[in-house]
Write a structure and sequence with these properties.
It comes from Aegilops tauschii subsp. strangulata. With 146 residues, this protein is of the alpha+beta class. It is built from 2 helices and 8 strands. The strands form 2 sheets. Strands 4-3-2-1-5-8 form a 6-stranded antiparallel sheet, with no helix packed on it. The protein has a two-stranded antiparallel sheet with strand order 6-7. The chain is globular, with a radius of gyration of 15 Å.
């Protein structure tokens, strides 16, 4: 819908996502451990590469060869917070912003505290389904050539 705007289309799409968005309380289980609650989640991003659409460096410290995923959790953000901190997201310096946290995992399960079945899960910008979901590393599943 916004492709004619080039890389700006990703920013416009993210802003459009804030329309009608409400932060959700989620429960996560990391590496098969105990469930813990994460309040007011705006976005929970899982990656094995540094960049998302348009050059957003959302998972800036991940190494695709490490066997880990990086999980970035953004809590209690509003559309104006997103705009004001957008430069940090593109520069990969957002991990020090208040309300942003990061963990390294081999697997993560995510569920809603109060299940509504309407929290989207996306993979590489495509609709993948709804929560609950699980992401995990499959060591050696892809061969890399340098």
């Amino acid at each position: 819908m916004y492709k004619r705007f080039g890389n700006l289309c990703y920013v416009l799409g993210a802003l459009r996502g804030f329309w009608g968005h409400s932060n959700r309380d989620l429960r996560i289980k990391v590496n098969g451990g105990e469930w813990r609650t994460v309040d007011k989640v705006t976005a929970l991003c899982v990656g094995n590469a540094k960049y998302f659409g348009g050059g957003m460096k959302i998972t800036p410290t991940v190494d695709p060869f490490s066997g880990d995923l990086q999980v970035v959790i953004i809590q209690d953000f509003k559309w104006y917070s997103f705009l004001l901190k957008l430069h940090r997201l593109y520069g990969g310096t957002h991990l020090t912003v208040n309300g942003v946290s990061s963990i390294r995992v081999q697997s993560i399960e995510v569920v809603e505290v109060v299940p509504n079945g309407d929290v989207f899960v996306q993979s590489d910008g495509e609709h993948f389904g709804f929560l609950p979901t699980k992401f995990s590393v499959l060591p050696g599943a892809v061969d890399f050539f340098s």
